[in-house]
Amino acid sequence: MRQLLSGTAASRGSALGRARVRLPHALDIEEVRIAPEDVEAETARFHDAVTEVRHEMRELRDRLHGALAQEVGEFLDLHALLLDDPELLSGIETLIRSGLYAADYALRLQRNRIAAVFEGMDDPYLRSRIDDIDQVIGRLHASLHSHRAELQGASGEILVTDSVAPAELAQLQAQGVVGVITAGGSPLSHSAILARSLHLPLIVGAPQALIKANDGDVLVIDGATGQIVLEPDAADLQDHHARVAQARQERRQLNRLRREPTRSLDGVDIKLWANAETREDVIEAHALGAAGVGLYRTEFLFLGSCELPDEASQFRAYRDAVLAMTGRTVTIRTLDLGADKADKTGLALKDEPNPALGLRGVRLSLAREGLLHTQMRAIVRASGYGPVRVLVPMISSGEEIALVRRTLDAVRAELQAEGHGMAARIPLGAMIEVPSAALSLSSFIRDCDFLSIGTNDLVQYLLAADRTNDALNALYSPLHPAVLRVLRDVVRIAQRHAVPVTVCGEIAADPVFVPLLLSLGLTELSLHPATLLEVRRAIRSSHLGQLRGAAPALLRARSRTAIERWLDARSIAPP
Ligand code: PEP
Ligand code: MG
After folding, report:
1. Fewer CB near the terminus (10 Å): N or C of the chain?
2. Which ligand sits closest to the CA of 189?
3. Using CB atoms within 10 A of its CB, is residue 131 exposed (0-12), middle (13-18) or buried (19+)?
């Protein structure tokens, strides 16, 4: 039966596909026995899993919103009851104690026993309740295994899952998955950024979908609005096809701007750089006429690999990016692993209590001996093939940029002695994304050849609002007066010292924010190629002089609502 669900739009595009629900309840478990002396520990492990699942379901319930919240909540209540069902729990415990089965296998045996009872029922409704048992058993199984099973998808499928890691997305797309829905997550997470880079429709914060959808259901999702239709009817299918056709038409119109300058109505040129995570992004950036690559997120190259990238593989990747830009500058950011970008090599700590405030970015590069040195060698060698800049993430003080510069200088001398070619000059820049860096910028700007403002993190750290937490989506906003003030101050300091400054956070990728960024004095933006032409179009419809004249009113705004009003008054309607 047709049902309308909703989540938060995270990556545009309309997709039609068959649902693959990833509740880890495929209990493909070998029979494992335990020794009698391990019975207590195994029983305790099982009970810990039950407690964890109870907690997880409570959290899921708290996240429900929208029209179906009550109905879906009732499902969860039913699952909570099943979780407390003595038949289920004591059955499993008996299997562990008397049968000496490992908890996982006991779970499977008990599931099969209960399934047999359900399957014998005449009433189809009652028979279908085995799905609920599977949901609960699946959660228990996942909890017993702290590691996640690899996400799998097939061509024409829309994956419905609790969360998705950046490293999993490219693989899913390669498998032919046409869209992803997650119960949690936020549009500012690195997974969402990568989904946009892959042009893979993504809807986050949709716990209802995880509960309502079953494997094989047909889904239509609209990544621009967050709308999900379960078992779409003829009209939904027509809407989907219309959206696809419209997107194609819009693309055709935008493509006319590929070779046009990014010039405002009053004749000021704005530099549009591209953000890139993959080689395909770099190629697309070049084709769209980007001024260069303003942010090459190197960590994305290595998230999928179980081994640390060596100098040779890094060098090849950077060199190829440089070659693809045919003489336009490529800004290579040193590794920004950590937080929601955990790699598989164990380099980034997995169990930090507060990962966003943990050992990520330049902190990790400086803490792990050899890491920065190897990466810098690869970057400097790549500079022999075309212009390169080095950008350092998570700078919180001048000392860090000084340490990185020392490594850069040492690496240059080393490579020169080895006879490698390199650019005569490799500018070094700091990401301004930690409030302390923004506030103490005057004291170390002389050590920076350029700056790039990372609003994704700057907003999260200024507002103390986790960018990946969907419960904070309403709070996390670049339109807080404090954010605008910091942006204005960073731009002023940079202008005073004649240091080029770019904004490379997601705010630069949304044409809606163009008037705001231009009015604050920015003349360089870096954004993903997916929306580069839209932003170019918005800039070409803007009058820079007028916007700069309106900056005082913007900065006087005392609330987010007032800033939104200011923006609304300057909204740029696409032609
Ligand atoms: C940012 O924080 O704005 C940024 C561009 O870096 P990332 O999103 O990779 O953390
Ligand atoms: Mg950042």
Report:
1. N
2. 1
3. middle
Q: CA-to-CA distance for 444 and 461, rounded, in angstroms?
A: 20
Q: Is 470 in the pocket of ligand 1 (CB under 6 A)?
A: no
Closest ligand 1 atom to 433 CA? 2
Choosing from 114, 144, 174, the residue where a domain stops is 144
Q: Please give the distance, rounded to the nearest whole angstrom, from the Cα atom of residue 379 to the centre of ligand 1.
A: 20
CB 228 within 8 A of CB 209: yes
Q: Give the Å distances, CA to CA, from 566 to 50, 243, 507, 533.
A: 51, 30, 16, 24
User: Residue 327 and residue 386: Cα distance in Å, rounded?
Assistant: 5
**Is 504 a domain residue?**
yes
Going by alpha carbons, the residue nearest to atom 4 of ligand 1 is 454
504: annotated active-site residue = yes
Tell me the one-letter amino acid at 178. Answer: V
Cα 413–Cα 418–Cα 419 angle in degrees, nearest 5: 95
**CB 197 near ligand 1, within 6 Å:** no
Q: Which residues contact 284 (CB under 8 A, 6 or more apart)?
A: 274, 529
Q: For residue 190, give the ligand nearest its CA.
A: 1
155 and 138, same domain (yes or no): no
- Whether residue 196 has its Cβ less than 6 Å from ligand 1: no
Looking at the 3D structure of the chain, how many domains does it have? 3
CA of 454 to the centre of ligand 1 (A): 5
Domain limits at 48?
36-144
Q: Is 241 a member of any domain?
A: yes
Query: Does ligand 1 lie within 6 Å of residue 338's CB atom?
Result: no
Element (H, E) at 471: none
pTM comes to 0.78
Q: Counting atoms of ligand 1 from 1, which one is nearest the CA of 188?
A: 8
The verdict on 194 and 327 lying in the same domain is no
On whether both 205 and 314 belong to a single domain, the answer is no
CATH label of the domain that carries residue 206: 3.50.30.10
Question: Is 190 known to be catalytic?
Answer: yes
Q: How far is the CA of 139 from the centre of ligand 1 (A)?
A: 32
Q: What is the 3-state secondary structure (H, E, C) of 330-398?
A: EEEECCCCECCECCCCCCCCCCCCCHHHCCCCHHHHHHCCCHHHHHHHHHHHHHHHCCEEEEECCCCCH
Reading the chain (575 residues) residue by residue, the pLDDT tens digits are 899 999 999 999 999 999 999 865 455 567 888 889 999 989 998 888 888 888 877 776 776 655 556 666 777 777 788 888 887 888 899 999 999 999 888 888 888 888 788 777 777 666 666 767 777 787 788 777 755 556 788 999 999 998 887 778 888 998 999 999 998 888 888 889 889 988 999 999 998 998 889 889 999 999 999 999 999 999 999 999 999 999 999 999 999 999 999 999 999 999 999 999 888 899 999 999 999 999 999 988 777 666 778 999 999 999 999 999 999 999 999 999 877 776 666 676 666 788 889 889 999 999 988 999 999 999 999 999 999 999 999 999 999 999 999 999 999 999 999 999 999 999 999 999 999 999 999 999 999 999 999 999 999 999 999 998 888 888 999 999 999 999 999 999 999 999 999 999 999 999 999 999 999 999 999 999 999 999 999 999 999 999 999 999 999 999 999 999 999 998 876 55
**Is residue 12 in contact with ligand 1, taking CB distance under 6 Å?**
no
Atom of ligand 1 nearest to the CA of 455: 3
